[in-house]
Amino acid sequence: MDKKTVYLETSIISYLTARPSSDLLAAALQKVTIDWWDTQRIRFDLFASEIVIEEAGRGDDIPEICTPQELMGVFENG
Fold first, then answer.
1. Which residue, of 15, 34, 51, 53, has the fewest CB within 10 Å?
2. CA gap 1, 32 in Å, rounded
């Protein structure tokens, strides 16, 4: 069975790499994103453009999980 392709946008990468937010809505979005990343990403071929990676890398948050550049390896390796 072929995997479906998911094109990730900047907010997904930002939620994955940012330190936990004290804002309730942002914290909820981070949790949902991290849970999906941990449990569902294996079901899909993931892609993010270099522009998305660069844009996410310009954020002010200190990486909690990994940097956007480290995530690039996931996209390059499928």
1. 51
2. 26
Query: Per residue in 21-35, pLDDT tens?
Result: 999 999 999 999 999
Paired with 47 in beta bridges are: 7
Give residue 25's pLDDT.
96
Distance in angstroms (rounded) separating the CA atoms of residues 66 and 69 = 8
Q: Which helix (H) or strand (E) holds 4?
A: strand 4-7
DSSP conformational letter for 40: T
**pLDDT tens for each residue of 52-63:** 877 776 765 545
CB under 8 Å to 18, separation ≥6 — which residues? 30, 59, 61, 62, 63, 64
Pairwise CA distance, residues 67 & 49, whole Å: 15
* Cα 70-25-72 angle, rounded to 5 deg: 10
